[in-house]
Structure formats: structure tokens, C-alpha cells
Amino acid sequence: MNLFSDIRALVIDSISALQAEATLPEGLNTDPVTTEPPRDPAHGDMATNAAMVLAKPAKMKPRDIAEALAEKLRADDRIASAEVAGPGFLNLRLSNATWAALPAAILKDGTDYGRSGMGAGTKVNIEYVSANPTGPMHVGHARGAIVGDAMASLLAYAGYDVTREYYINDGGAQVDVLARSVYLRYQEAHDLSVDWPEGSYPGDYLIPVGEALKDKVGDRWLDAPEEEWLAEVRTFATDAMMDLIREDLAALGVRMDHFFSEKSLYGTGRIEDAIKTLDDKGLIYRGVLEPPKGKTPEDWEPREQTLFKSTEHGDDVDRPIKKSDGSWTYFAPDIAYHYDKVSRGFDMLIDIFGADHGGYVKRMKAAVSALSEGRVPLDIKLIQLVKLYKNGQPFKMSKRAGTFVTLRDVVDMVGADVARFHMLTRKPDAALDFDFDKVVEQSKENPVFYVQYAHARICSVLRKAADAGIDVTDATLADVTPVLEDPAEIALAAKLAEWPRLVEIAARTHEPHRVATYLSEVAADLHGLWNKGNDNTALRFVQDDPAATQSKILLARATAVVIRAGLGILGVTPVEEMR
């Protein structure tokens, strides 16, 4: 059930009726017609822009269309009133019977309430986290992992065919640094004293890796030159770090469908194939770029390079793909990787990067546009920094990592559910404050607690009713028609009606934080109704009369269905009692 879609269908049917009467001309495009909550709830339950968007093509005044449309809509039992406002806005109020029918419909739909077929099986690849395999993931990776995982769940809920993917950055020089750092731990495992050069990875997390290397090869490499052990240690260390990363992701509730190795692109012809594809389209050339802004002739030297003509696909400047020494730039393997994704048949690509990748957005979108001939859209979401606090002070260091707070630190301190919900309370491109004390605080200022408390309260009243011998199973409640008369009851029902619409909006914009915001609003309405019942016993969910209890508790149970569905998308387990 989608009440907003149902009322929009009613509006479209009314437009058709007006066309049949020749009040409106035939051939009008009704695709832009919407029904949505009004900006000011005092104006009604829903508003439609129909008169405003049809006025110009119909060559009529918006208000004339609105008045004719209002008359048609008032004839439907679901509409209590249809009022024209301003130049042609149309505000609708739904009948109490319409609101009363909603909770039972939600229970009958169960976990399918709010699910959408909007995606129609569109194949989507979401790449997220993709941390260098050089150590444990830090709190910034945690936010990217949570946003990506929730986005994947959201799109799947909206009918998309989603693949969660991790790109292993194991093709660069940083993995050689990792191998050398593991070798130092290997030497320490043999009780040798070592000096840590600048730029190495001295975190304690490599101690067991050095021990494991010792167990595997003994002292065979202790006096061996680097060229003998570097390649094997590099593979050994990368595998160990990926095991660590998988464990950290699992602790956060994140599991990938596919891991793709950057290293697999080198020496296999895959980069060359991707660049040739662009070359065949006339998009690769030799040229000299203009100096970067702010550079002077003294600190910039023009040189001929192999360039990708990315400006033909929306970029600001063309981009180098090969260095003057003939080696590939960092951009070239990224082109090849995205070419691989396009070749795998995905209809849409989503990349979730750290905020420091802002300069990569236009060039990557240009590459995908060129490789797919504009068929495959690429959306790139940038994740801003997380600022950590404890006891009101910045919280910075992890003993395990040596220099930063790890993802596992966060999970161990507050739990995966709290971390996931709080990381989704802001848009990903906005900085986020994460206070270890406040995110576990039991107050309405803490959205994690507030939403979980709403679900736990509902579970509590269900248990109380059941203990009193009242049948409050879903099968029984689904046949109940509640009496919703108080504005707080109707406000809660109206908020539940927004869920299917919210899912589609959040999926379309790739913004899972909208779900967290919505759940906070649902919780506020539930708590508001609960508190109102403290003064007005007629509004309490559990009454002396079993039939009255079933009538009241149905709305609460429908609320729990929606909260559970929303938390499921966020990857958060709903609690049934607060401890």
C-alpha cells in the first residue's frame, strides 16, 4: 500500500474525467503531477501541484484547473476536503476512515510495506570502503562503510539488483611499504632490533603478521636481499591485512559481494584494453596541458603527455593517463577498473569516496560516460570527516593502530548498532561529530536511543496486553478497524503513510540518511502520543476493554513494523526492551 501513490492516481483519474468532459484538453502530460506532504501541516494532509504544472500546456489559469479538480476530488470517500490556495495550489485532507484503514493495511503488507518496484531490477554496483590494505580501517572508513552498506540495502529495498563491491588498492607503492614493515616485524619475531624508517607502518597490528611470517618461512629470509622476499611478503602481508579488514567489516555488520584487486589490472592487458577503447573513440592524444591555476613559469614545466580528452564528457580539463617515463598515472587503472564494471553489465555505478577525492569526481564521471557511451550513469558520494570526542575532549589515538582511532575501536566502545545509526544522522558530505558519551546517552536528544526506545515501548505494551489475555497477534489486529480521532493519532498515521514515498525518494537520491531522519520523526510522533496518553487515558494503548485495546494497539504495532523496516535498511537491530 502506498497512500500517496493512491491519491496521486485519484488525481490523475480526475484529470482524465475533466478531459472527457472537455474541461481540460486532451494530450496533457501528467508525469510532473505529484502528491506530497504540504510544507505546512496546517494546510492539509497532502498537496498536489496538478493545476500549476498543467496550466501552461492547457492554456488555462491554474486556479480554474484547481477548482475544477477540487470538485472531482471531493466526490471520493477518501477526501474530506479539497481547498484551492493562492494561484492554484490544491490542499487535500483525508477522511478519518482513510487514516483508520492504514494501520491494518500495514500489518497485512508486513515486511513488504514500503518496498518498491521502482528499481525494476536495474543492476547497480556500489563500491565503498576500498581502503588501502595496509592496516586496520579507521573511523573515516567506518562512515564510508556504513553509508555504502545502508545505500545498498535501501536500493535493494526499492527493487534494484545491487552488488556490494570492495576495490583492493594493492597495486601501488604503499603495499611495498607494507611488505617492508612486515619484514621488520618478522625480524623482531627473531629477536632482532630494528629501526623504523619514516613512512613505514609501525602499528602493533603487524606484530602477529610478522610472527605468522616467521612460522611460515623460519629464518630463510633473515639475511636475504630485498629482491628475494619483497614480492612474496607483499602478497602475504596483503592477504593478512584483507583478513583483518574483513573481520573489521563483519564486526560492523558489513559484508561484500565482491572484492576486486587493483593488482589484477597490471600486466594483464586490461589497462591497455580500456585505454584502447577510448583511443578508438578518438579520445586519447598527445598534448601539453595549460599550467595549473596559481602556478608560475618558475615552478611549472610544460611537457607533452598522453592525455584523455575528458573535456568532451563534462570535465574541466583533459587528464594525463601516462607519465613522461611511460608508466601509467593513477587515473589509468581507475579507468580500467570502471571499464570492467561497465563490461560486467551494470546499469548504474555508485562510488563512495573520502572527501579528499573531490578532484576525482569529474574525471571519473567523464571516463565512465565515454566508456559506456553515456549509457551508464556514475554517482560519486564524498564522505566528510568524523570528529571524535570523549568526555568533551577530542579523542584521537588508538594503541592498536598507533596513530588513529580504528573502526574496531568504535564498535568495541559503543556497538555496531549505535555506530551505524549515528553515522547516518547527517548527509555524508557534511562533517559529523561523534561523541562516545552522547551516542549512548539515554535521552531524546540522542536519536539512536529515541528510535530504539519507541520500538521497545511498543513491544512493552504488546507484552502487557498479551499478559492481560488480549489477543494482539498480527493476524487478529489486521482485521481491526481502529478509531483514530485525536490529532496525535492521525499525525502518527500520516507519518507512517509517508514511508513508501520516503523509500523511493531516498533511493532515487542515493541518500540513506533520509531513513534515519524519518525514523526519528516517527519516534517523536509515537512518544508524543504516548505522553498525551499520560493525561488522557482514552489515548493509552492498553485499555480495560479488549476490543478498545486492539483498536488502540493496532496503530502502535503498525508503527513498529515501519521502525523495524527502516532500521533493517540502516543495518540496525531493533531492540524489544531497553536495558
UniProtKB/TrEMBL annotation:
Chief subcellular location: cytoplasm
Matching PANTHER family: ARGININE--TRNA LIGASE, CYTOPLASMIC, ARGINYL-TRNA SYNTHETASE
Uppermost EC category: ligase
Domain of life: Bacteria
UniProt subcellular location: Cytoplasm
EC number(s) per entry: 6.1.1.19
Pfam families linked to this entry: Arg_tRNA_synt_N, DALR_1, tRNA-synt_1d
Catalysed reactions, as listed in the record: tRNA(Arg) + L-arginine + ATP = L-arginyl-tRNA(Arg) + AMP + diphosphate
Domain DALR anticodon binding: 451-578
Originating species: Ponticoccus alexandrii
SUPFAM superfamilies: Anticodon-binding domain of a subclass of class I aminoacyl-tRNA synthetases (SSF47323), Arginyl-tRNA synthetase (ArgRS), N-terminal 'additional' domain (SSF55190), Nucleotidylyl transferase (SSF52374)
UniProt keyword annotations, A-Z: Aminoacyl-tRNA synthetase, ATP-binding, Cytoplasm, Ligase, Nucleotide-binding, Protein biosynthesis
Quaternary assembly: Monomer.
Protein known as: Arginine--tRNA ligase
Transmembrane segments: none
Sequence motif 'HIGH' region, residues: 131-141
Keyword Ligase in annotation: yes
NCBIfam families (UniProt xref): argS
Keyword Glycoprotein: no
